[in-house]
Amino acid sequence: MRTRWIYIMFLLLILTGCLKPYEPDIETEELGYLVVESVLDVSDGKGQIVLSRTKKLDAVNQETRETNARVWIEDIPGNRLDFDEDTSGVYLADFSTYEPTENLTLHILTSDNHRYHSDTVDVLTSPPIDSITWQADDGGITFYVNTHDPTHSTNFYRWEFIETAEYNSLFLSKGIYDEELGEVVQRDQETQNIYLCWAEQQSRKVILGNTSTFTEDIIVGKEVSSIPADSWKHRFRYSLLVRQYALTAAEYDYWYNIQQTNENTGSIFETQPANIPGNIMAESDPEELVLGYFSISRTTEKRVFVNQQELPGWKRAYNIPTGCDEDDETFVDINTFYEDPYQQEIIEIVYDLTGTIIGITTANRECIVCSYADRGTHIKPEYW
What we know:
Layout: H1 2-16, E1 34-41, E2 46-53, E3 70-75, E4 80-87, E5 90-94, E6 104-109, E7 115-118, E8 123-125, E9 129-137, E10 140-148, E11 156-168, E12 175-178, E13 183-186, E14 196-202, E15 207-210, E16 218-228, E17 237-246, H2 249-264, E18 280-282, E19 291-298, E20 300-307, E21 330-333, H3 334-339, E22 348-351, E23 357-362
Parallel strand pairs: 1-19, 8-19
Antiparallel strand pairs: 1-2, 2-5, 3-4, 3-6, 4-5, 6-7, 7-18, 9-10, 10-16, 11-14, 11-15, 11-17, 12-13, 17-20, 21-23, 22-23
């Protein structure tokens, strides 16, 4: 029972983000189970596996990555691909010279000589996504995926998405301090943009489809995402990239159980905890709990855009929340500004009647720099 509580709390932590801290009544030595993030998508020729250890939920600053391990995958003939540690606990491999197909096993040898391996899996290739459609109403925008497999061999599906939204800061900065000239000059909006940004966010929920009981392997109108009508995300332009995985029945059950735990457990006491097994085990102790699932996929994906002009009758959405207000703009004498020109961003350059700069207007940095606090990037995505 104590093992079950640990696992449920781990799943809730990674799938729902912020939770009220909770510490189960367990012994300290029972923490430290191996966590293996090994759902590989080799569509781009690259693979990443992340190893870590479970910890107490309130130990937010404690390092949990499993470092200095040996990680590799191997097929039955003995062909092997090694993963090299890139950063702490993150192991990367290049699939450009290795073509995975079937009968593949993940192997892990930790720095303290504990061995782990997965069940044998085959590479599954997703059928193409037919289309991504969307519908807008008073409540917001809802997105749907449509796909099919004419061979009726997929049956089990999972989707992830990445959303990208264009937004701007409250104030447009028209000036910048030129370090070489030692003075304020007009900002080049093309090369020195800090006003327009793009924010990207990865999906966090588990989205599944099952056609195994259907006469045809067709998914029509499966909801994958939605945006409220008052969201800042559709203020200018919004993009949704949907990625589709084909699953085995066993992997589908694994994700389905995680989905049910996540959706039904608003509080950890609302449903009876259950042990959700993966397909990775410790060689020396089959009873040792190992968290994670190993699979290799070739995914398919499709992107859709929504422009503000396509939402007739809607009021322009609010901007990204910053806590800024138009009244935050203040005047600073130019001599005062030059005392520490890197302390403040410039909104407007203020001139007297002779054209001499007498000051600037400014506000808090988060009101002027759209990428402040890693909200997004001022570099336009290539697909935009």
